[in-house]
Design brief:
Order of helices and strands: EEHHHEHEEH
Strand content: 15-25%
Structural class: alpha+beta
Number of helices: 5
Largest sheet: 3 strands, antiparallel
Helix content: 40-55%
Radius of gyration: 21 Å
Length: 186
């Protein structure tokens, strides 16, 4: 199986994409899943397959084309363990933002904060940036090399921000099998 790499530039960040031939099993699995999704969505009317068949084939092709990235996918069991952590952090962030807005003297100090990434896996880095942007009160603003710039609702305590980001980075690293040294151990 031959591989070729295409580099997709994202600022100073490069995402390497592999090109390899999909296995027959991967094609059949996706065809089955998208066909089942069509059946659930459109029902059992045979005429719906006039639109459904091309849609299933296009979805299968897109899925195979877009899923071939270097860095791999998250480990399934680690992903299951990550979901409660993400939900808890989202809830905690939402209450924190609500408290700051409802408090008569808002305790906000919006600003930009720089953080040096330790993750090496490109897919893990993308997931970290996206996850930070989904959590209330933070937004991934820029990535240049290993330096991530985060916009935070309260950027007054850089050490606290570093600790929160490092905790999230460590969890995401575990998803992709990367072992990161704890910031506290450095």
């Amino acid at each position: 199986m031959g591989l070729s790499f295409i580099a997709v530039p994202l600022g100073d960040f490069r995402l390497d994409v592999t090109r390899s031939k999909p296995t027959v099993g991967a094609v059949l699995l996706r065809l089955g899943l998208f066909a089942a999704t069509w059946l659930v969505t459109a029902g059992t009317d045979p005429t719906s397959w006039l639109i459904g068949a091309p849609a299933v084939i296009a979805a299968t092709w897109s899925s195979l084309h877009l899923s071939r990235r270097a860095g791999g996918s998250p480990r399934p069991l680690a992903a299951l363990a990550f979901v409660p952590f993400f939900l808890w952090q989202s809830l905690r962030g939402a209450f924190d933002v609500a408290w700051r807005v409802m408090w008569p003297r808002m305790h906000i100090a919006p600003g930009l904060h720089s953080y040096r990434l330790r993750l090496a896996n490109a897919s893990a880095r993308v997931l970290l940036l996206d996850t930070l942007s989904l959590l209330p009160g933070t937004l991934s603003a820029d990535l240049r090399g290993d330096i991530l710039t985060v916009h935070a609702l309260d950027a007054s305590d850089g050490a606290l921000l570093d600790a929160d980001i490092a905790q999230l980075e460590q969890r995401i690293g575990a998803l992709f099998g990367e072992r990161l040294v704890s910031v506290l151990d450095q």
